[in-house]
Hints:
Two copies of one chain form a homodimer. Chain A is mainly α. The first copy, chain A, has helices at residues 3-31, 38-56, 59-67, 91-108, 112-135, 138-159, 165-173, 179-201, 217-230, 267-286, 304-318, 322-337, 350-357, 374-390, 398-410, 435-455, 459-464, 469-480, 488-496, 503-517; strands at residues 240-242, 248-252, 255-260.
Amino acid sequence: MRKELTRLVEIDRELGLLGHIAALLGWDQETYMPAKAVAERSEQVALIETVAHEKSVSPEIGDLLAALGSTTASPTGAPDGETSEGAPLDARERAYLRVLRRDYDMNTKLPTDLVAELARETSLSQASWIEARAENDFPAFAPHMERMVELKKRQAACLAPGGMPYDALLDLFEPGSTESSIAEIFAGLRGELVSLLAKIAAEPQVDDSFLRRPCPADRQAAISEWLTGIMSYDRGRGRLDVVAHPFTTTLGEDDVRITTRYIEDFFVSSLFSTIHEAGHALYELGIAPGREFARTRLHAAVSMAVHESQSRMWENLIGRSERFWKHNYARLSELAGGGGASSPLDGVGLEAFVRAINKVAPSLIRTEADEVTYGLHIILRFELESELISGRLAVKDLPEAWNAKTEELLGLVPPDDARGCLQDVHWSAGLFGYFPSYALGNLYAAQFWSAMKRDMPDRDDRIESGDLASILGWLRSKIHEEGSIYLPGELVRQVTGTSLDPRHFAAYLDEKYSRIYGF
Amino acid sequence: MRKELTRLVEIDRELGLLGHIAALLGWDQETYMPAKAVAERSEQVALIETVAHEKSVSPEIGDLLAALGSTTASPTGAPDGETSEGAPLDARERAYLRVLRRDYDMNTKLPTDLVAELARETSLSQASWIEARAENDFPAFAPHMERMVELKKRQAACLAPGGMPYDALLDLFEPGSTESSIAEIFAGLRGELVSLLAKIAAEPQVDDSFLRRPCPADRQAAISEWLTGIMSYDRGRGRLDVVAHPFTTTLGEDDVRITTRYIEDFFVSSLFSTIHEAGHALYELGIAPGREFARTRLHAAVSMAVHESQSRMWENLIGRSERFWKHNYARLSELAGGGGASSPLDGVGLEAFVRAINKVAPSLIRTEADEVTYGLHIILRFELESELISGRLAVKDLPEAWNAKTEELLGLVPPDDARGCLQDVHWSAGLFGYFPSYALGNLYAAQFWSAMKRDMPDRDDRIESGDLASILGWLRSKIHEEGSIYLPGELVRQVTGTSLDPRHFAAYLDEKYSRIYGF
């Protein structure tokens, strides 16, 4: 490896360590931190982000990149490194330069005080959101939200001066995407979902009342333990904790932690949330860009949408499939009962269970939505956050706008903000531009799923026989291991042969729900 | 406040944040971190220590100190600030300059690579020690221990070139102390303890067999919860977790966490360990050097020995006293039984319990030692670590030297290294020079205890009536609030009227044990 590259790797690894330290500060805040510690914690996070930002914009990085032939002028996809004078760079090294260049250009556009302010406000605003949601008190949270919107606008203006602010934020999570490209995809998706929903509404509805039978937290914990086990989530490199709003976070190359929550009268919530988060964790733990790029920025997921494709594939395409439960239902039923006590699944057959966990019905809470209405929840958030960032919508008017759009898209009116615009952590965490990743993730997942079937025609029999290792093996070799070598668009072509094509998802939904609802 | 001072406070607070972040990395490693994460964790700790060290030796600090009239030439106790040209500094500001000067002089003597190496090795070596102790495998740990001894020697040589290396390490924990000053105190202490031990041995022995009756972890947890409650340990600013080797750590101004461990057939181990750690936590949480010095280095304990005086006062002078249990024994007995199950204290009266928890008998494990033999455990470690650091003892010969000295001082021979030289975390954590703090802490505690009685003649009646708030109030106003304004020697004079006088401890032991053993 050329000496400039070796030095870049060294700097990059320090940045990686700082990122993981910041992740620990965040994880601890959500899991175990005493309540009154939040004020100083926000300062701690801000300091780490400041130190990291200062390191990330060091002119040394720019000089090293230039010495290797990478300049700001190179378009994102250009083969960096070809014009430098030393030994030619291989494909992996060029991919690495591309990632570094992208981040360096982005970071040098952001002033340090903005980075610190964002970090500080994120920590405070999340704490405020937790209280506001518990108290159903949007006005108490609104000043934080306003401040966050202002900060995100400032960030967008720095990243893309003169450009569309929301595009700059989308690009942070899904490189190359824009509001108009996503709006186009979502317009098609909305049509599909609405028409499917109408077909489903015309059929006899599914009974899922037994899913509301009580199941104590310790039994749900046993179920989560078992599920992460059969998914091969390595507890030597991770752990499961209980939080208000489940997430996955990477605190080290060998430290990817997941979280869940136990709702006593809806045990499948933790069941699917655990599968979902473990899907994220398997991706992170499977990244292996080679020894020389370990713990560098190549050692990272391609994009948040690809990340979501992994979690949602495990949660929905596997975890809500009949094949999966044919193998696993007896054990679930046993664990849900625990030590001889009654199980919420007593007297419930496999088929009834699979129908229940796939019941489609408009609902208020995104994280509890079925696969059909889920996309509508995302479209709602996409449209609202675009309006917030563009300034077309004021924060104070958000509850009303949220409720109106919920009625328009889902036919329901939230009875309060806790079940309305306060339900998600994202905006309090400054994650504007993230929501579309969830819907794009569904599209990627379905397309990857088709490619997996092409490569492994007996895949569904394997799932039915309890063989999840083949699935994980395919995901690892096709998607996980590569890390960030490809852009999302390149990866999907590489794995599936075509660019992103929403028809895979539409076909998957049609096939599945026509079977369940019999149309 | 003068502008130079304001800037020093700003820098100091950043260093404080970094220290708290490092503390979180350490706390997480001991409590919840997945096993395989240790390699990268050691890098994370090293990076934070490096960033902190680089900030702590910035020439700007030296310039600011000089502008305020503080120069390296000032002896430690001199009234810094008197020669500067701006507005005169008040006593608190001068005390602050003294602390800053001390640390700055110390830090500028340490090369950054040594700081990083120490941080990295501490993390790795602690992980190795945990395994080695569990496997009773000293040779597996020895290479880490050797490396640590070498690093500590290098550190000592940097701190006090040409001086006694062990003195430099002692000074880190108890400013102003030296090997010879401690050796003198310990010589007197050893005589007292040995003679007291002989008197006790001549009397009928105490029965404490019932303390070995089983008490499940959940009941011990309930006891710990109750005890920290009556001690007014604020769970909004702290928490209690379970670890292999209990400790207290400060992660923020409002975040001081304690830990304990539950040994099923010796429930008083967690009971006293929890009281001990909560005593440390109350000190940390009680420090209040005024708004302008919040989160600065004045916002810190005076020394480790003063810290131990607080933990040991709660554990022994209060927690093993008859007066305390007169008020609390009934509740303990109830909690130890839990939900109507049998309690290890069933049929055991108050007097028998108090005698049992004060039983004196030579034993192998320091943390389980009684108040009389405890000091002998410390003298053993003090002598051995002094020999290790001076090079008179090689690491490979430690087990033999440990066993010989245990026999000499306690009349016992450890059957294995797990119950011998591998029992304590300190050396693996690089804490050479710390052990004497425990014994000094006992001496300070007894002297503070006498002063408290002078100030509050009805103290013992208050304890008997369940009033612990008065005790905490006195400790806060006399010791905690001041933070690091005084040196240890100054504090003890300020609070008690004289310098450290070991006779308070000797008198306390004599009075207590003559009553218990009837001589």
